Automatic annotation (TrEMBL):
SUPFAM superfamilies tied to this protein: FAD/NAD(P)-binding domain, FAD/NAD-linked reductases, dimerisation (C-terminal) domain
GO MF terms held by the record: dihydrolipoyl dehydrogenase (NADH) activity; flavin adenine dinucleotide binding
Cofactor(s) of this protein: FAD
Organism: Streptomyces nodosus
Cofactor note: Binds 1 FAD per subunit.
Annotated protein name in UniProt: NAD(P)/FAD-dependent oxidoreductase
């Protein structure tokens, strides 16, 4: 085989993160010959620089916080052993080795190519390997772009010289910085403020907007901000960074109000950009660096062979939602390859990613946790739905009272008054992350309120909040 020999597959997948792995798994299960290309580690951002390491850092933080709220064990919950936490994080990410993930790909029969993949016209992908070797892969049925996203940095003079943290450095740091400035108010900013403050950093959070977690119900960000402030985090809203520079080992930040702040490290958690800038989009008439617009079968608009899954299509920048899209797209690609004349693309059909619009769940692993699925009240009203929001204080739930002394939390369900089904649910409080799947089932299943009344929550658990919500709705 020469370096430029063309190798034909049914499906070629760009990116071997969780999304790419799942679409490869589904197409291989359908008997389609599949190649997958990865330029970094098999397992992708989630496995090594996002979901897994961040939760490994946060789990000890939350466990200690829970223990401190329980009489009888509160006195033994002392300072965290930061080196032990970081070592456990390293273990959970396999010390940034991907042998296990590669073995899994081998097990499903997908061919792995290491290197940088670029489209080279319709159904054609060139791969430049780490030693400069070249491969040309062609796809009989589909090319799936699963290249994910990266951190977006602001256009500030001298920022490169500061060597700022992004989410990668924040989850992979080898030691605890004495002082850490975090710029941003979303999920990454909130979780990393929670983790690094508990591990010993003096943390300052600068939020340009009015508060934290702006895409959730307002009370979610309010309760998380209140807890961070009580813990000792310096949280400043309505604040922008005007300039940043490094003086020796010190990062110096000047805000729009003229305040001068100093830290050892600075983390910018200010959004994401798609990894589509150097994958050859221009060779198929698309704009390099753009988010890729897709239909509900995850196929790129005006294409009959190109699919975009996960972060790159900008529908829901969440690992679990990307994996869901991969399962849908895998079924779609297999059906089209088999010549199925009519796909099930009606809402909630086997070949439609309907949940992207109606039932996207998310958990923010702060203390307290924030979890939501579906539409917020504001989103539902903006969509023109006739709705009613029902709120419950979690201190009315015996399971929450038993879970922790001084438990604070809140729940909301947004009810469509025409169908009497749920459009969205939000929980905030310790331990509520495990409640969100029940809400996802209710929203995705469009379960009528009258039927939910017969789904009896166990006493005494926090899930009894469902009974309180339904009682409040019924009056």
């Amino acid at each position: 085989m020469t370096e430029t020999e063309s190798i034909a597959y049914d499906v070629v997948v760009l990116g071997a993160g969780p999304v790419g792995e799942n679409v490869a798994d589904r197409t291989r299960a359908a008997g389609l010959a599949t190649a997958i290309v990865e330029r970094e580690l098999v397992g992708g951002e989630c496995s090594y620089w996002a979901c897994i390491p961040s939760k490994a850092l946060l789990r000890p933080v939350i466990a200690r916080a829970d223990a401190r709220r329980v009489p009888g064990v509160d006195g033994v919950a002392g300072p965290l052993d930061a080196p032990a936490v970081l070592a456990h994080r390293d273990h959970e990410v396999g010390n940034w080795h991907d042998d296990g993930q590669v073995a899994w790909l081998d097990g499903i029969g997908a061919d792995l190519y290491r290197g940088h993949a670029r489209l080279a016209g319709p159904r054609t992908v060139t791969v430049t390997g780490p030693d400069g070797e070249q491969h040309v892969l062609t796809a009989r049925h589909a090319v799936a772009v699963c290249t994910g996203s990266g951190a977006r940095l602001p256009d500030l003079p001298g920022l490169a010289e500061v060597k700022p943290w992004t989410s990668r450095e924040a989850t992979g740091a080898k030691s605890v910085p004495g002082r850490l400035i975090i710029v941003g108010g979303g999920v990454v900013a909130s979780e990393m403020a929670t983790a690094w403050h508990a591990l010993g950093s003096e943390v300052t959070v600068l939020v340009r907007g009015k508060g934290l977690l702006p895409r959730m119900e307002p009370f979610a960000g309010e309760l998380v901000a209140e807890a961070l402030a009580e813990a000792g985090v310096d949280l400043r809203t309505g604040t922008s960074v005007e300039s940043v520079r490094r003086e020796g080992d010190t990062v110096v930040v000047v805000t729009d109000s003229g305040d001068r702040l100093e830290a050892d490290e600075i983390l910018f958690a200010t959004g994401r950009v798609p990894h589509t800038d150097d994958i050859g989009l221009e060779t198929v008439g698309l704009e390099p660096g753009s988010w890729l617009e897709v239909d509900d079968t995850l196929r790129v608009t005006d294409s009959d062979w190109l699919y975009a899954l996960g972060d790159v299509n900008h529908r829901a920048l969440l690992t679990h939602q990307g994996k869901y899209q991969a399962r849908i797209a895998g079924a779609v690609i297999a059906a089209r390859a088999a010549g199925v004349p009519l796909l099930e693309t009606d809402p909630w059909g086997a070949h439609a990613a309907t949940a992207d619009h109606a039932a996207v769940p998310q958990v923010v692993f702060t203390d307290p946790e924030a979890a939501a699925v579906g539409l917020s009240l504001a989103e539902a009203e903006q969509a023109g739905r006739r709705v009613r929001a029902v709120d419950v204080d979690l201190t009315s739930v015996e399971g929450a009272i038993l879970y922790a002394d001084g438990y604070r939390g809140r729940a909301r369900m947004v009810v469509d008054l025409d169908s009497e089904t749920l459009l969205g649910v939000t929980f905030v409080g310790p331990g509520v992350g495990e409640l969100i799947h029940s809400a996802s089932v209710a929203v995705a299943g469009e379960v009528p309120i009258d039927r939910l009344w017969h789904a009896v929550p166990s006493f005494p658990t926090i899930s009894e909040v469902w009974l309180r919500l339904l009682e409040a709705y019924r009056g």
